[in-house]
Amino acid sequence: MRLTVQFFNTIKMSNPTTETLTSIFLKSVSSVNPKHLLRKSVEVQANKLIVCKDIYNLTRPCYLVGMGKAAFDMAREIEEILGDNLREGVVNVPFGAMKSDKSSRIRFVEGAHNNLPDENAERGARLIKGLIEKLEVDDLLLVLISGGGSALLPLPKHPLTLMEKLNITESLAKRGANICELNSVRKRLSVLKGGGLAKLAYPTPVVSLIISDIIDDPISSIASGPTTPNLDESHVAIEVLKKYSLYDELPVHAVRILQETDTCNPTETFPHVRNYIIGNNQIAANAALSHATALGYQSFVLSTRVQGEVGRISEIYAELARQVASLIISNKGECENFKLFLETFKSELGISEFAFNEITNFNFKSCSGICLIFGGEPTVTVKGKGKGGRNQQLALSFSIEINKLNVDSANISFLSCGTDGIDGPTDAAGAFGTSNLVSDAFVQNINPTQFLADNDSYGFYTRYRHGKYLVRTGHTGTNVMDIHILIVSPKAE
Question: Is the pLDDT reported for residue 419 higher than 50?
Fold first, then answer.
């Protein structure tokens, strides 16, 4: 597997704990490989397309459009499954995601360098629009959607320009807007998002296959919901922009577009569309759980709904690590304190009742190591001028917070990575954090707190241990948000 080969040097140079964290992460990513997911969900039998047990007659050729970080592998796999039933396709993929020049009926357009909409992505969106406009009522359109699709489908409503729209969404992201807030604005400013693609295709039947990169898998938010009605009231996007003090800075024509109400119909339905979620963060987290358990750790998936500011999440994770370390070492009346702690942060971390009961009823006595797995997508409010991504920022922030707690009784290691392999505008998927990172960094005359304050986590990790604590995978070909892995084990006596 290409991903494993790229990681070989990193694993070889890392200590055993980082090697373990890496292997667990790789298993989680492999479990949401688009080819694997599609083979489980889609097949062709006797001139019929079967999708999650639903049957579609292949009486006419199929057409294909797609967008997102997993779109390339999804498209090539669907092309192989459909064979001669596929006539034509246009698929927008991230810059650098093309893996083959093999002949294809699909036109691939690379764009959105560093996950930012650009002219290439806009050109691809226009090609997708053009293909859909020529469909007939008896054709069948397959739509492949995955995370990153918003940046790859950036056709703005006239007269808004791509650069104006990009400035709006970038400003929101830098001020800490979450993915649902960002998408509520994108949908209102876009031709194909917020159900625009589905409207354009009507009445042609549409089958949409989706790999989710958003908490709770809301179809209307994944890639800004091109195949599902936009049920947001027209004022929602305006309220988001006002919340982050951006509304008064908008171009006049952007305000005019946002104030339009005729595109919002709370009772709207798309009877010609079927949407299928075929992959999500829960699948990846469960695969990480299985592998960590096989490696001998007592393992728990505590949440796949982590969101909120990275600084806040790192504080909670650090205290959680301290509490678990105390339980492993002493196991003397600490269980009630641990239960109270988890109860306090249960809602904030999105911990399910099942996960809460499972870990609070576990006997930590004589445990050789605990592996806690989380999934989700925290946010970072950018105030500095440095370079990084939310996963590197979280790993660094966690390391600083756990250092403050002076946990000497256990080895504590942490990994935070994006399953897409890209963390912010960097070449890393994420980074490692440890309880001794801060002290080690000062030995190298590096002050991690200064780098964190400048949002320069990539700058820190590039210098720290010559970059060995950065996790580099390149494009993984999938995207189901982030995976956080926390390992706590007693120190050898």
Answer: yes
pTM of the predicted protein model: 0.89
The answer to whether 287 and 33 are in contact (CB under 8 A) is no
Contacts of residues 353-360 at CB distance under 8 Å and 24 or more positions apart, as own/partner, are 355/300, 355/301, 355/302, 355/303, 358/300, 359/300, 359/302, 360/335
Residue 328 to residue 331: CA distance in whole angstroms: 6
pLDDT at 14 over 50: no
Burial tier of 85 (Cβ tally within 10 Å: 0-12, 13-18, 19+) = middle
Beta strands 273-279 and 298-306 are unpaired
Say which residue the tokens 């049957």 belong to. Answer: 55
Position 330 scores a pLDDT of 75
Burial call 229-266: b when 16+ CB within 10 Å, e when fewer = bbebeeebbbebbeebebbeebeeebeebbeeeebbee
pLDDT at 464 over 80: yes
- Bridge partners (DSSP) listed for residue 67: 92, 145
pLDDT exceeds 50 at position 10: no
